[in-house]
Amino acid sequence: MSPRDGSRTDPSRFRKVLFIRLRRIGDIILTTPAVRAVRTALPRAELVYVVEEPYKELVEGNPDIDRVVTVPKEQSRREFLSLVRAIRKEDYDAVVDFHGGPRASLLALLSGGKVKAGYAVKYRGLFYDVRVPRAPKEGRIHSVENHVNLVRALGIEVGDIQGLVLPRGQVSTFQLSVADGKVEKLRPDPLIAVHIGAGNRFRYWGADNLARLVRLLGEIPGTRAALIGGPEDKAAESEILEKAPGTLSFVAMLDLAGTAELIRQAAVFVGPDSGPMHIAAAVGTPIVAWFGPTLPANFAPWKPTGGARIIEKALDCRPCKQRDCVHGDYRCLQLITPEEVRDAVTAALGPSPE
């Protein structure tokens, strides 16, 4: 973790700091405690965050960030070099790469930052002056703590790690675009937000389980379940609605701000280890989450003020790299029953009013 020139890691010299985390929802939100730690230690420094365009709402308006630089999801070589030139002109004292992917690490390397911090990953770890292991030799470490360790490695003193930050200013008005083009304001009373997305087949619980769950949730007096997800979840939505007709669905209807506000207004968030789960942790909505191939030790909701109930099964094959299921049946998820999830939601809702 020692840089080639130790004097360059003197935080008292840092006037401009660049953070890089290009995507996705949960990964970006999980960096915010590390950003807050830098803001607390360096109140006068200018803090700039580089993020892909679809996710800018997660950091724009963050009180700990002075400026957000957005980049397209796909960049031509010319566009990338233009970005590099613009960043080099800023003369950053420190660059923190929370991402570590090919484009992010190359951007850090070419940034011109006086000291660059990143993870000690194969090949790309050489791009940084200060390197931190992505995983400990023994045990587990939460992603939030991993990001904070990058900050510590720069010599920045960190006290208690704070909770997640999601700018309220970006989601203060919740608008829902309905099929006829009108915009209406939704007031869930009370709503159970069910995230049907999964990211990949290893985290997908399946239409049968999800449909059974929303039918069970529909039996809880005075509540209504609503599906949320992105355009990539439309096929799953169709299967679920076929098996559970009449279910309220906002899949592919909401932008990121709208999704965040729906989760904020919901009585409970239900879903897998996912970006929306971390949104729920940030906004204080009670969480019921199931974990399959990933472990809560690494990705559990971080300091959720609304509380979190985690459902998982102890299997020797967990965690896995999500490339191939050694059993072929995705049992880490399929052993979790809709009834278990329903019971956890009922507990999260609390006792019914007399």
What does this structure look like?
The N and C termini lie far apart (58 Å). The protein has two domains: 6-153, Rossmann fold (3-Layer(aba) Sandwich), CATH 3.40.50; 171-349, Rossmann fold (3-Layer(aba) Sandwich), CATH 3.40.50. The protein is an alpha/beta fold and 354 residues long. It contains twelve helices and 14 strands. Residues 1-7 and 169-186 have low confidence and may be disordered. A hairpin with a 5-residue loop joins β7 (176-177) and β8.
In short:
This protein is α/β, with parallel strands linked by helices and 354 residues long. Mean pLDDT is 91; it is low at 1-7 and 169-186.
CATH hierarchy, class of the largest domain? Alpha Beta
Total helix count?
12
Low-confidence sequence ranges: 1-7, 169-186
Average pLDDT figure = 91
Overall body shape: elongated
In percent terms, what proportion of residues is strand? 15-25%
Strand count, sense and barrel status of the largest sheet are:
6 strands, parallel
> How are helices and strands ordered from N to C?
EHHEEHEHEEHEEEHEHEHEHEHEHH
Number of strands: 14
Q: What is the name of the CATH superfamily of the largest domain?
A: Glycogen Phosphorylase B
Q: Provide the domain count.
A: 2
